[in-house]
Design a protein that fits this description.
The protein has 204 residues and is α/β, with parallel strands linked by helices. It is 26% helix and 19% strand. It has one domain: P-loop containing nucleotide triphosphate hydrolases (Rossmann fold, 3-Layer(aba) Sandwich), CATH 3.40.50. A 7-stranded mixed β-sheet has the order 3-4-2-5-1-6-7, with helices on both faces.
Amino acid sequence: MSKNFAVLGKSLDRTTAASRAASQPVPPVTHSSEYTDLIQRLFPGPSVVAIVGVGSTTGAADVCEGIASELSHLGRRVVLVPVHRLLAMNPVTPPDETSFMPGPARNVWVWPAPFGQQIEFFKPRNSASAEHWLDTLRRNFDSVLLDCPSTETAPLSAAIVARADSAVLAVEAGQTSKGQIVRDQRSVHLSGVNLAGCILINTR
């Protein structure tokens, strides 16, 4: 594991074998809010961050929503991208003005919206239908959070993770094997994205 790989917001001596996969762990920094340190490190300005779920189908989504809510309190415009929906779309086209669904907090939106859901009218700052969907989101939002399934179980998600500025693994404590973590960690590194750390979820 990278020396920058750390368990954020949890005490290292209480973690499971999942966190011990880091060969050179960095002690976490005490903070007053669950994702404060992560936000300070990864969102100093406009950023795209991939949260990769390892050993969990919902953990990454919960982490994304928590980070988005905190970013919204800082006045950031945030969009959440459930990558599993993108993988079901062919082709994936840049969002239009009616593509965004209201998210879990003020100034937070979700794209793409689930089929049949109420969609909020939203006018992008500029229109460029020929560009990549992520380029459109970068231009219109301060923060983009990619809710990504494990690259082990959904290999096509690796190409999306590769376009992020950095990535974080969301590890299900007590359920995720060291092998799973190592394989996802290796996949992220091979994509060329900075692996910023690991968050333990469902801890007791």
